[in-house]
Amino acid sequence: MWGIIVIITVLFVLFFIGFFSWVISIYNGLIELKNNITKSWANIDVLLKQRTDEIPNLIAAVKGYMKHEKDLLIELTNARTSIIGASSLSGKAKADKEISGALKSIFAVSENYPSLKANENFLKLQQRITAIENELADRREFYNDSVNIYNIRIQSIPDVFFAKMLGFVKQEMYKVSDEDKRNVKIEI
Amino acid sequence: MGDNDSWEFGGLILGGILFVSGIKSLKLERLIRNTPTSKIRSLAMGLVEIKGIVVPVNNQQILKSPFSNKDCVYYYYTVEENHRDKHGDNWSTIKKETKFVNFRLQDDTGEVLVNPDKARMQIPSDNRYELKKMQIIPETVAAFLTANNIKEKGWFGFRRELRCTEYFIEPGNELYVLGNAGKNPSLSSAITNQDTVIIQKGSLFSKVFKKNIFFISDQKEETLLKELKASILLCLWGGGGLIALATLSLLFRMGAFK
What we know:
The structure holds two protein chains of two kinds.
Chain A lengths: L1 H61 L7 H16 L3 H21 L4 H4 L2 H36 L3 H8 L11 H4 L7
Chain B lengths: L2 H32 L11 E11 L6 E2 L6 E2 L1 E9 L8 E10 L2 E4 L4 E4 L5 E3 L4 E4 L8 H9 L14 E8 L4 E10 L13 E4 L3 H5 L6 E3 L3 H33 L5
Parallel strand pairs in B: 7-12, 8-13
Antiparallel strand pairs in B: 1-6, 1-11, 2-3, 4-5, 4-10, 6-7, 9-10, 11-12, 11-13
């Protein structure tokens, strides 16, 4: 009789330990996914800073040649100021898009200045910034993948029940603005 | 008390082992599913998941697979012998070896150096030779056996029942790698054009945070996840079921349901 009681007690204890371990593993899993999103944004931030640091060098390299493109250079300087001052994720994402746009314009316009195009310093800067832009594109994709995995998880059974209880909410992806998606008109 | 006890206690132990194995597979499956794939040109340091094609570091860092003599960057082989008894086949390993060299993994954005030391490899066997069934033993297999003093024939000149299995990774294979991206510890200031980043097993630091997983497979991520899911179902439900069955049987015999 005692043997039966012991076995049943052990089973109940194991069941409760198992259940609580399962709940803890769900919570820890959600925390890990949320932190992965934070980490992937921080990895974008590192590249944003690297690119921001290159901008003064770029402006110094081009301003002597591109005297008639003052507006572009002002746009780039303002975008740089915005990203340095931005503290929120959405603020940084907005400033990031502004810088990318301004840089694209400067590199496109530089085609009209052959002496600038021949400048070694400018070419190296262009290569470095282009490499950073490519890495940024990869990391934005990675960030969206991380957000997607998290969003799927908090909406799937059984995590959906615990996610609501524990305050895990859907995260926004890094989106391209409608303006960026417009077709570019090329005049030959 | 008698033979019945051994089945129940054996069932509990086996069920426990299966269950724990299922939990480990579940953790790996979750990690693979929850880690997005990184592009090689924008690798962040730490645990990364990458996919690409194997490229040898140079012509000197190339191995030859032991039985088929193919170029490879990693191989593992076993030579087993069957000693049949009244219970049936009884294969025992008489020789095994693992060998590898560093290689590069290339995707559409770049290449990165990989050191496969201490990686958990999941690669299906590439070749299996059951010598007793073969009329002619391939030259490369015969050469291997000779070079390693493994006699093909046993008592009275009869061919031994040997089984040679090899697993290898060739240049051009598509690989899935889940490991730690870090600074290459072998960097030398005297050499130019070195790989600054290397994918390898995590350090003690990352082990503390349970991120020193290092997993390499030549199967696609989707196939890996399917196999892991099947293994999880089998081990968790099988193990749990066995534990439940053994416990119920024990309780029944002890008169709990009378």
